[in-house]
Amino acid sequence: MQFTAEHTEWGRVDITLDDLGCGRSWEEIHRVRGVQLVCPECRGQVFPRVSKLGTRHLYHRTRPPSCSLANESLEHHLLKLELVTCARAAGFRAELEVAAPTGEWRADVMVFSPDGNRLMALEAQLSPITAEEIAARTGLYERDGVRVCWFGIRPRPWVGTVPTLLVQAPAEQGQTWTVAAGLARLSSPPEGWSPVDAALSDAVAWMLTGRILPHTPRCRSRKVTYGNEWCEWAEGWTASYSDSWRLWWTTPAYVALDAELVRQEEEDRRRRQAEEKAAARQREAKAREKARKKAAYAAFWSRTGLDQQQWRYFRALAELFFSRNLVFGAPDSRYGDGRPVYERSGPEGERWTLVGVACPDPCRLRAWAEELPLLVPSHGDLTVLAGRAWAPFQVYVLDPETGVMDRERVMPAAVGS
């Protein structure tokens, strides 16, 4: 079953058109003796007839094994007929079985723009073909400036690797062809991509008028209606080959939304990276600070000769002597590697006031020693401080061994005495 032929005088004949595409009528060829119609592929003679379903078509009396037009299936012929009918219903000139001038391709249906240029090829692909072969054929159309969409009925490994629609024939007379897979819409998160139901006639009109276009989704982190991953959306439609389906038809608005979501995802990714880097820097800074404090404490214990038990007694004596709520900070290089002493006050102890320095290194005293009381654990430390005084120092001796608590004012005159 085929729909086009060549007449020796009239030229190309398309029996799907009322005027046969050449200003003639069906009655001039159907059951008319002497009409010479030849197949455009094998050049064999073809004859017009009407099927039991009332479909006009052409046939070879002897089917040539090498002629693809003669050996196309009934499904293929009916789908081609539906595609050309949809294109014409959308207001476009469409012809069946149009070959390239070079013969490198022959479109099942070629749709023409209003200015007469080839606009789009509609290909019914029902026979087996590899993804590589269909990509090569698509490339030939693209090279010649022709858009193309491939229409299938069953899931195949190639579906979705090129612009594709899977369609479903009407189950009963009076029903229409419908799109089974290949149309999608993009909703804002968390819905993501989801399928769109449509009549085949509407889908063909949309693609010819630019209302839909083939698009490879970029927004990969969004989940979809079918499946748990972005690439599994086609599984619910085709039941197989979902991993290969990467291209579907959608509106320009959804393409723009996809790009915006990708931009947001990229911003989120950069933000997360920045946050991770900042967190890593904080962890490193904390680790360095922890190591610094550990080293400072080790140096403090070594220099003062105090152990943990003695230090607890020293702190208790200080709180007892001053009758204040005191907090001892970590060894601080700003205070001669001594431990700053703070008084906590306020309803919840939120105010910390620096009130002294415990066990500073006598060799590293600075101007602060003139203003802040110095707390030491023995009179021997007091003597060392007295030897370093350049101004009056207020020194408190809190001896954890004896429990002695003294307050001394060291004067610079003590130097050298």
Automatic annotation (TrEMBL):
Family annotation (InterPro entries): CoiA_nuc
Keywords linked to the UniProt accession: Coiled coil
Coiled coil: 263-290
Chain ranges of the Competence protein CoiA nuclease-like domain: 72-150
Any one Pfam family match given in the protein's UniProt record, by short name: CoiA_nuc
Protein name: Competence protein CoiA nuclease-like domain-containing protein
Lineage: Bacteria, Bacillati, Actinomycetota, Actinomycetes, Kitasatosporales
